[in-house]
Structures are given as structure tokens and as C-alpha cells.
Design goal:
about 180 residues; 8 helices; about 0% strand; about 70% helix
Length: about 180
């Protein structure tokens, strides 16, 4: 068996990883994080991002991800599909994108398919994205994307991808909302 090409073993790994992620996203409740994110997202919808930071001391995610999660909550409310599915599905898809970026980044390596398959089947990646719904899996993807863009000498795009990863807590005590 050769590992330098995407043989049957590779496609079986892709199907297995996709099936596990689909099951976890659709058929499990996941962790309490989905409920926490739903509360944060409702605050963002009702008060805006800065207002959410002001009233919710545990809202410590960057404005970009908070806005995205609020959009996902709106989609959940509009469709009747559970928010936990909308929360976790994008991160499971980012895992697929991360595996693809690894393939592109390691194009010269004979082990690139092994590395991508190992990442795709990594229990930690699967649990964080498809079960936990943890936004940290997005950090891994955007870091990989940034490295790949740098390898293509696309500095501005790489900087933008890296900027998306910024997890900067915003203490609500610094915001003074006028009434």
C-alpha cells in the first residue's frame, strides 16, 4: 500500500470522519457550551456585541465570532432546526477545510495524505468541533490557512486569516453604554 497517493484507504478515512462528525452534530446534544453560546447570541441580537460584553461577563469571544453565532441563532429560529446543530456544523466543516489546506500546504510531501487523514480522524479535532462546538477549532483552521497563504506569498490575505483567529477578551468594565 502506498501512502503518497489518495488511495482507497484515504477515501475510507474521509468517509469515516464525515460520518462520525455528522452523527455527533445531528444526533447528540453535545456539551453545555451550546446553551452558553445561545445565551451569548441572544444577547448579541438584543443588545449588539458591545451591549453583550457589557451585561455578560462570560462573553469573551471576538466580535467577529459573536456576530457569526448570532446569525446562526437567527437561522435556527427561522428554520426550527436546533441551534446546537447550527453551532457545531460550521466547525465540523472547518475541519474538512483544514484537512484540505493541509493537503495543499504539504503538496511536496509524500506523507501529505497520511497527515490529512490523521488530522481528519483525530479524536480531539472531532470532539472539539462536532461534539463540543468549540470555536477553538476555527483557530486551527485559520492558522493553517494563514501559513498556506504565506507560502504563496499572499501576505495581506495571510494577515487577514491570522486576524480572524484573535481571541481577545473584552472586559465589559471598559464599556460605558449611554442610556
Amino acid at each position: 500500500m502506498t501512502f503518497s497517493r489518495a488511495g482507497l484507504w484515504f477515501w475510507m478515512a474521509i468517509v469515516l470522519g464525515a460520518a462520525i462528525r455528522f452523527y455527533l452534530v445531528v444526533f447528540t446534544e453535545g456539551t453545555f457550551d451550546a446553551q452558553l453560546w445561545e445565551g451569548h447570541s441572544r444577547d448579541v441580537i438584543e443588545r449588539g456585541v458591545v451591549g453583550c460584553y457589557h451585561v455578560n461577563g462570560s462573553a469573551n469571544h471576538p466580535p467577529f465570532i459573536s456576530e457569526i453565532e448570532a446569525v446562526l441563532l437567527g437561522m435556527s429560529d427561522a428554520t426550527g432546526i436546533s441551534y446546537r446543530i447550527f453551532l457545531r456544523a460550521p466547525f465540523a466543516l472547518l475541519d474538512a477545510a483544514g484537512a484540505f489546506v493541509l493537503l495543499r500546504l504539504l503538496v511536496a510531501s509524500p506523507w501529505r495524505f497520511v497527515v490529512a487523514a490523521c488530522y481528519w480522524l483525530s479524536p480531539l479535532a472531532i470532539i472539539l468541533s462536532a461534539y463540543h462546538g468549540n470555536v477553538d477549532s476555527a483557530v486551527g483552521f485559520f492558522l493553517l490557512l494563514s501559513v498556506w497563504l504565506l507560502s504563496k506569498e499572499r501576505t495581506i490575505s495571510a494577515a487577514a486569516a491570522l486576524g480572524i483567529t484573535g481571541r481577545m477578551p473584552v472586559p465589559h468594565k471598559y464599556f460605558r453604554l449611554s442610556s
